[in-house]
Amino acid sequence: MATSLTKVGGVVVITQVIHQDQASIPLQTPPRATPPPATPTSTPAAPPAPSKLDELRVAFLQGGPQALGVSQIMVGLVCVAFALRAAFSPLLVLHAALGLAVAFVVSGSLTLAALRRTSVSSVWTAALSNGISALVGLVGVAYLGFLMASYRPAKLFCDDATWGDVTPTDTERRDCLWKISLLDVSEYGSLGVLLVLLVLQVCVSITVSVFSARAIRRRGRTATAARSR
């Protein structure tokens, strides 16, 4: 096979002579570029669905049970301390009824226990105990209102028919009431503080009960939706 070049009018003509026994000219095709191997893309795993217990805990935490439980315990201890004063003076025997505030300590402790180990039974227990505490608090508010309206400690000192072997006159009684009027002021101040604390306790107990009921209801809805699937 011979090749010749001829230039005609500015055009280069390539002449190739093929021998008779050659049927064709093997053509070389450029090798195809093989695409790089596709790297397998790992699809991110879907996050695990939250369990029913997690949803119960999240719904329960929305009410702030830790602060509410601690406040219940503090209010209960203050009320019990006032009730213990009845053991030292017969004039304060009416304060003994405030010993029922131990229910506030119990409900606060159960609320904190439900926070540490959240379960359906613990949340139910917290809801019921706080419902009872709310009722006790309402009774306490009414009782303190009655004491502040009708109870005057100074009269217990000055309104006796006799002072030992002496029968006081009306003037002496008025002077007695005026001199120990500070006792009434301190007593009414103490009862007023207790009244505010009991109102706070009622609000806290209702709040814990409502959020506990919501948490249990939300878990019930989640369980129903999971069964329907």
UniProtKB/TrEMBL annotation:
<dbReference type="InterPro" id="IPR007237">
    <property type="entry name" value="CD20-like"/>
</dbReference>
<feature type="region of interest" description="Disordered">
    <location>
        <begin position="25"/>
        <end position="49"/>
    </location>
</feature>
<feature type="compositionally biased region" description="Pro residues">
    <location>
        <begin position="28"/>
        <end position="49"/>
    </location>
</feature>
<protein>
    <submittedName>
        <fullName>Uncharacterized protein</fullName>
    </submittedName>
</protein>
<dbReference type="Pfam" id="PF04103">
    <property type="entry name" value="CD20"/>
</dbReference>
<feature type="transmembrane region" description="Helical">
    <location>
        <begin position="94"/>
        <end position="115"/>
    </location>
</feature>
<comment type="similarity">
    <text>Belongs to the MS4A family.</text>
</comment>
<feature type="transmembrane region" description="Helical">
    <location>
        <begin position="67"/>
        <end position="88"/>
    </location>
</feature>
<feature type="transmembrane region" description="Helical">
    <location>
        <begin position="127"/>
        <end position="146"/>
    </location>
</feature>
<keyword id="KW-0812">Transmembrane</keyword>
<dbReference type="InterPro" id="IPR030417">
    <property type="entry name" value="MS4A"/>
</dbReference>
<feature type="transmembrane region" description="Helical">
    <location>
        <begin position="188"/>
        <end position="211"/>
    </location>
</feature>
<keyword id="KW-0472">Membrane</keyword>
<dbReference type="GO" id="GO:0005886">
    <property type="term" value="C:plasma membrane"/>
</dbReference>
<keyword id="KW-1133">Transmembrane helix</keyword>
